[in-house]
Amino acid sequence: MRLQSDFLNGLFVSILYGFAVRYFLPAMGMNPSLQYPLFIGGIVSLAMRSAYLHNMNVTKDIDASGFMYYQLASAGSVGEVVLSRLCGQMLSLSITLGSYMLLGYVMMRDSCVCLFSGSLALVFVAITSFLATFCMFWSYRLRLDRYLDLFWPRVLGPMIVFGGVHFTWHKMHLLSPRVAKIFLCSPLLYCTEGLRASLLGNAQSIPLLITVPMLFMLSGMFFLAAMYQLQKRTDCVMR
Amino acid sequence: MVYAKLFAVLFSREWLVYKKRLRGLFISFLGIRVITFAFQEGYVKPLMYFGSSMDRRALMIIGGILIKRVVLRTFDFAYAYFNDMHHQKHIWFQKMAAPSFLIYITRLCFSTCAAYGLMFFFLPIMKIYLWSHLDVSHAHWPLYAVILLCITYMITSFSFFCMTVVTTQKGTVAMRLRVSDTLLLIGAFHATWAAMYSVHPVWGYIALCSPFTYATESFRHALHSGADLLPLPYAVAGLVVWSALFTFVGARIFARRAP
Question: Scanning A109, B29, B38, B76, which has its CA 20 to 30 A from the CA of B170?
Answer without folding.
Answer: B29
